[in-house]
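Students often ask why we bother predicting the structure of a whole assembly rather than each chain alone. The short answer is interfaces. A chain on its own may look different once its partners are present, and contacts between molecules only exist in the joint model. In this exercise we take two input lines together and write out one structure for the complete complex. Read the inputs first and try to guess which parts will touch.
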Amino acid sequence: MGVQAKPIPRSKPRERWLSTTDRLAPVLMMAPAAIFTVLMIGFPFVYAGYLSLHKITLGSPDPAVFIGLDNFAKAMGDPIFWTAVRVNLALYAVGLILELVLGTYIGILLGQPLRGIAIARVLAIFPAVIPSVAVGLVFAQMFDPAQGLFNFVLRALGQRPQAWLASPTTVLQSILIVEVWQWTPFIALIIMGAMQTLPTEPYEAARIDGASGLQILRYLTLPMLRPAIVVAAMLRTVDLMRIFDSIYIMTQGGPINSSMSLNVYAFTQGFLFSQFGYSSAIMLVLLALTVIASATLGAARRRSGV
Amino acid sequence: MKRIHWRDGVMNTFLYAQIIIVLALILFPILWMALSSLRYNVDITAYPPKLIAPVTLENYVNLVQTNNFGRIAVNSAIIVTGSTLLGMLLGVPAAYAAARFRKQGWAFLILLARMSPGILFLIPWYMVALAAQLTDNYLTLILTHTVITMPVIVWLMLSFFEELPPDMEESAMIDGCSRFQVLRLIAIPLSIPGIAVSAILSFIFSWNYFLFALVLSGSGTMPLTVAAFQFIGVSAINWGGLMAAATVISVPPMILTMFVQRWLVRGLTAGAVKG
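Now the answer. The structure tokens for the assembled complex follow.
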């Protein structure tokens, strides 16, 4: 066979399902997963919609009383709900920008073809693969005002110790430190992967034309990385909007609700106060906010032709 | 030529310096966790912070002897293995059919599952589990964790199956194999690396997932993540014990990550890339 032998022409996938049982095969293969999805995701989704329109009192003779949109109206008049919306949006906006900037930088750095870089790539991703509980515990230690490492270091440097998680004025910054630390490597990983697929020709041309390193970064690398950055932004949008673990583990929304996100508030309402209808309503609002944020990013993505 | 080499050398040193600083910041909390887990409490909270202190395994011994972490680790193993196996059983055939037939529907479902806040599902699950007396039950935890593992498995296996050359499958079908035989005798054996990667990533995701077990597990089925979290209240200032618990739950995913590093992007971005 010659070196340039053409691949054997393939029939289209659909034409390859031949006999009757074979025509049923894809349905039979997908059925278990599809049934599981309907039962475990589809049904709860619909049921949550039902709950959000009812007042739920477990164990009473009339456990679900239809109250229309009262749960949503209740949220509109609930100051803690609005605190949670603000906390969500603040953590989202600041967290996303910090993570994108740092993650792109680290991704480009670790995307360089250097000796020993493979080890650095594995080590750099560790924060994103360990359980959030472990992350929360370590940072709870380091943030502890009286015994934590951060204040020890500040004192040793002659600086004023901080309250970190213990004060409403610093709790969000502290949570941001944790989120940025844990998830920036995740963005770096996506950028790193994209770096490896970039074509080499434009770089050679730029070198011949005498472009500086900064010019190459600004006019070549960053534009070519834009699709990967947008994907990273969309994934982090979805995850930052439903932020729960780090907050629940370290502060449970305190002190005095100053770190209460929508997800943590819905959890508190649902599982501490058994307000299942109200909790479902809050979750549907959060889902709507997430869809809006994602759709906005998606529109920007299409407009810029990425 | 010489000048270019000289410049490249400086450039590389500059890059390595940045990499070392970045890695130091990334790894420091993990090192502090591991280091503190091997120390006595007096040394962890000593001021000024100690670089060198006596090493002890006391924190780990206490976890097993007084906090029953051995038994709790078995819970974790049951939930993680169960949800990985069930995810495989459901996800691998679905991924194969999707790869050879159509995949748009799955991409949408995976995206929807990723976007929805977990509590949205958790409230209905909790109410059903309460009514059916299925809280604190392995089955409930395995089923709910499969909601996490199955989409990842479908997404990864889909791309592995798509990369398989269809020639072998076609000749097997001409020889009279049914589609199911092709899957069992050809596609799956050829995709063993993909199956291994999917299983490992599924293990990591299930192991790390906190929210579902926080609500649905109880004293009999609690996994390590929930136990470590509840440990905070039990021993507020036992930092050594807390750091040992954090280290115990972090080591398995860190070790597994080393084997699947190059596949991690695909697993973590499930549902977002293409569609």
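Check your guess against this: The radius of gyration of chain A is 25 Å.
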